[in-house]
Amino acid sequence: MIRRHAAAATALRAYLRRACSSHAADSNDQLLGLVEVPKPRPGSRLSTKDFAFLKEPTPPIPAAALTPPEAVLISKAIRAYATDFDGSAERFLRRHRDFLTDAVVVAVLRSVRAPELCVKFFLWAERQVGYSHTSACYDALAEVLSFEDRARTAERLLREIGEDDREVLGRLLNVLVRKCCRHGAWAEALEELGRLKDFGYRPSGATYNALVQVLATAGQVDMGFRVQKEMSESGFCMDKFTIGCFAQALCKKGRYSDALDMIQREDFKLDTVLCTQMISGLMEASLFDEAVSFLHRMRCNSCIPNIVTYRTLLSGFLKKKQLGWCKRIINMMMKEGCNPNPSLFNSLVHSYCNARDYTYAYKLLKRMSSCSCPPGYVVYNIFIGSICGGEELPDPELLALAEKVYEEMLASNCVLNKVNTANFARCLCGVEKFDKAFQIIKVMMKKGFVPDTSTYSKVITFLCQAMKVEKAFLLFQEMKNVGVKPDVYTYTILIDSFCKAGLIEQAQKWFDEMRSVGCSPNVVTYTALLHAYLKAKQLPQASEFFHRMVDAGCLPNAITYSALIDGLCKAGEIQKACEVYAKLIGTSGSVESEFYFEGEHTDTIAPNVVTYGALVDGLCKAHKVVDAHELLDAMLSTGCEPNHIIYDALIDGFCKVGKIDNAQEVFLRMTKCGYLPTVHTYTSLIDAMFKDKRLDLAMKVLSQMLEGSCTPNVVTYTAMIDGLCGIGESEKALKLLSMMKQKGCSPNVVTYTALIDGLGKSGKVDIGLQLFTQMSTQGCAPNYVTYRVLINHCCAAGLLDEAHSLLSEMKQTYWPKYLQGYSFAVQGFSRKFIASLGLLEEMESHGTVPIAPVYGLLIDNFSKAGRLEKALELHKEMMEVSPSLNITSKVAYASLIQALCLASHLEEAFGLYSEMVRKGVVPELSVFVCLIKGLVKVNKWNEALQLCYSICHEGVKWQGNNSFDGG
After folding, report:
1. Are the beta carbons of 917 and 880 closer than 8 angstroms?
2. What are phi and psi for residue 964, nearest 5 degrees?
3. What pLDDT, on a 0 to 100 scale, did the predictor assign at position 440?
4. CA–CA distance, 294 with 310 (Å, rounded to integer)
């Protein structure tokens, strides 16, 4: 998380500036410094008192959240006297009967877990005078009894309960039915209903309502009518919520007349809520005329449509891409004072932009402010990205509209994302608005965007064209057009720019071109390309290029060898870097390193502070901090004084490996040598101390930092916030975020993401969602890691609709199909943080940002929740976004097939299985087991046996296992 510029890279840029200075237009040229140094923002001076709250003791956990001590005592006794419950256990329990409450009983049941012991304790508790079980107690017992098998409770235990207390058994059986309904398992719920009747009990009204609801949600409307008829014959009526669910399900099937008849039979009067639910069902069935007719019918029945009604209609038409209908509904609802919410406005603008109806999209954009939901980060990126994202330049009128919206966006303190920034600037350069394009790049980069490889490929050309050094690239083109031969300095600036962007092949083309026109490269030109090849880990090409350099008579200098050592370190070739260094100082005769020292010129080259800095930095990053520390002594012995960059590298290295005491020793040595610690120095120490949970020590360093007039920057605050989240102090982390804003330090995407992750791990997903909204409105755009963290926590908390909404937003505003690698998607985050999300494994199996795993996560959770329609819809989207399958899609297939088999949708399950095999994915054994169970469940024994036979005799290669050939 804590990043520092490498010493060698800094020296190389300085050398290039000096080498090209004779051709610079003026001393203010900004080619090699893309972002200006930010000016300090106004704010009151920090002091130790500002951070005093970090020392405050953490408030104790509320008593209500703790397990009652009596429950712990009773649980231990029950387990200890398990074999003698009627004797020793009951004697112990009688001494504690005064402590019986529903909370104690629930806690004991969840702690003991053993079904037989739980049943005995439950029945004993029910017999005690002055105590009666609540619904929470029955739910807890049902959870214990169905622990191993979700719906089928052991008959023997149920009969024991019935023999002891028939009333308790009746309530429990009703609870088991409702429990299946809550999990969406309607088939298991009907089985439990049958068992309830077999035991001689009748379902309660709540049980019937739960059954009708789960059947309606699953689309089993005919079965729902049967249950409703039985319910009516038993003297029960459906409640309002159940009627709404059932009516919506019937409308979804196109049976809205049956829904009206059912409402009339139940003697229920139509109201706005019920009508809205029916309209929602009609919209899902694509019965648009009927839905609008029903809207008019509402008014005839004195049911006034409200904002939910209109938003339901609008969302339905938008989902079905009926944009003409959308305009009509928008006019109707706004006349009545109802407005779309921000998310719906965003989707509307996105749809009209896709339809190239930019005029209407802009009207909606302007309308948002008057509807108390001003446009934000998402909608501005949608609008400008749609106009400028195509391969061809937009019409002048459209580009002017994009410029107008961009100015409005800046006034709203919102920002463009990377791709839209590059595309917008490219379009402006296409109409020769170089200065404005350059300003856009600068403004967006000041907001925290670092262009990635694909972005640089678009940005570098017009960035050079807009520079003050004779408008670099523009001058280069003009020079060729008029027949003036560019010199070595012009080519070197271009080559260095492309190398820094990682576009080595294009830089090589410029290099070949300059040689073809008779312009000889110099040592600076060779060094720039050599360093780029090494950083890209292309060692064979780097070796060949070095040969070409020596053969051309261009002798490497100290900067070249420093770049060579730095490049080898960045490529992970620490051993080779050390061999180069050893050869330079004359202590190595390694054959492997002889390649880099052809000729006798190296006798006059001695390592300098830049060389040592590159090697120390590389050793520290490879966690060879002891070797790096020994190198510090070697420097001093040769009379080479270490600089603050080397000390910073050592301090950061010791902190990264957890040797804080060693880091403090280097810190003291640094100060004795007259070097003032920088914000990077303090930040490394504070970060390590927070991670080591040494909060008091971190506060001392922070105090020393403030006394030295060194103001914490965003990296420092982010390290503290991440450290607080790591020890579960998310409330203090929120306070620290608020304080850093007050002090004029704007949080970046890493800060927000770390805090959102900490809140999610503390079970505060709702606060994390609020923080996500806040960061977008305050000019800090979320990136892939932010979305991934929040989607993970939403799924874990059961907030599936919120997780799906985040995925939709990410698809609209992020750029997964453009980004060619992870290097910039995870930039700024520590390796440990990325590993905690499971992204390191995905990086090895994906060439682009992995949108498919996010789909897989949502598909799995929607499948387990019984929401198969949404899961299948997500699967279809995933196939469109990421056609190439991987282990993630395999998991998604397995989860979907299992859920479809449980719901007896065998045709769809086998369809997915066929698609899976057709795409070359080998199913897991569990997939076949689910398919076979599904066939058996519907009495298709022949098909089940045929599937078993094919598995045994065709020899299936299981993933991660030996082949199963029927042996």
Report:
1. no
2. -105, 105
3. 77
4. 12
Tokens in use for 172? Answer: 């429990």
User: What is the token pair recorded at 711?
Assistant: 């103001």
Q: What is the pLDDT of residue 953?
A: 61
Residue 792 in contact with residue 753, Cβ under 8 Å?
Answer: no
- Mean of all residue pLDDT scores within the chain: 75
Q: DSSP letters along 310-366, please?
A: HHHHHHHHHHTT-HHHHHHHHHHHHHTT----HHHHHHHHHHHHHTT-HHHHHHHHH
Q: How distant is the alpha carbon of residue 311 from its chain centre?
A: 28
- Asked if 496 and 473 touch (Cβ cutoff 8 Å), the reply is no
The one-letter amino acid at 830? S
Task: Look up residue 419 and give its amino acid.
Answer: V
* ∠ Cα 463 465 467 (to 5°): 70
User: Can you spell out the DSSP letters for 714-740?
Assistant: HHHHHHHHHHHHHTT-HHHHHHHHHHH
Nearest to 96 by CA among 79, 74, 75, 112: 74
| pLDDT attached to residue 27 | 36
CA 605 centroid distance within chain: 49
Q: DSSP for 65-104?
A: GSPPHHHHHHHHHHHHTGGGIIIIIHHHHHTTGGG--HHH
| d(C-alpha 330, C-alpha 87), whole Å | 73
559, 11 in Cβ contact below 8 A?
Answer: yes
CB 321 within 8 A of CB 292: no
- Residues pairing with 964 in the sheet: 956
Q: Which amino acid appears at position 42 of this protein?
A: P
- A 10 A CB-CB count for 908 gives 16
Q: How far is CA 120 from the centre of its chain?
A: 47
Q: Please state the rounded mean pLDDT for residues 657-671.
A: 82
Q: What's the confidence (pLDDT) of residue 21?
A: 40
DSSP 956: B
Which H/E stretch holds residue 143?
Answer: helix 135-145
Tokens of 55: 């020392």
In tens, the pLDDT along 221-269 reads 888 889 888 888 888 888 888 888 988 888 888 888 888 888 888 888 8
3-state SS, residue 200: coil
Percent of the chain with pLDDT over 90: 0
Q: Which residues lie closer than 8 Å to 747 by C-beta, 6 or more apart?
A: 714, 717, 718, 737, 740, 741, 775, 780
Closest CA to 184 of 158, 219, 208, 147: 219
For the chain, how many residues are written? 967
With CA atoms as reference, report the closest residue to 546 among 565, 527, 524, 572.
527
Q: Which residues are within 8 A (CB) of 309 and not within 5 positions of it... i.e. 6 or more apart?
A: 272, 275, 276, 279, 295, 298
pTM for this prediction: 0.59
Structure tokens at 480: 């060729």
3-state helix, strand, coil in the chain (%, to 5): 70, 0, 30
Task: Tell me how far apart the alpha carbons of residues 326 and 280 are, in angstroms, rounded to a whole number.
Answer: 15
Long-range residue pairs from 937-942, CB within 8 A, at least 24 positions apart, any chain: 937/901, 937/904, 938/904, 938/906, 940/906
| Residue of 669 and 628 predicted with greater confidence | 669
Give the CA distances from residue 222 to residues 251, 274, 815, in Å, rounded to whole numbers and listed in that order.
13, 20, 45
Helices (H), 521-641: 523-535, 539-551, 558-570, 574-584, 609-621, 625-637
Q: CB–CB of 724/732 below 8 Å?
A: yes
Q: Which of 625, 623, 647 is nearest to 635 (CA)?
A: 647
Residue whose C-alpha is closest to residue 279's, from 302, 262, 300, 260: 260
Helix axes 7-19, 523-535, angle to 10 degrees: 150
Sign of CA dihedral 18, 20, 21, 27: negative
- Report H helices in 501-557: 504-516, 523-535, 539-551
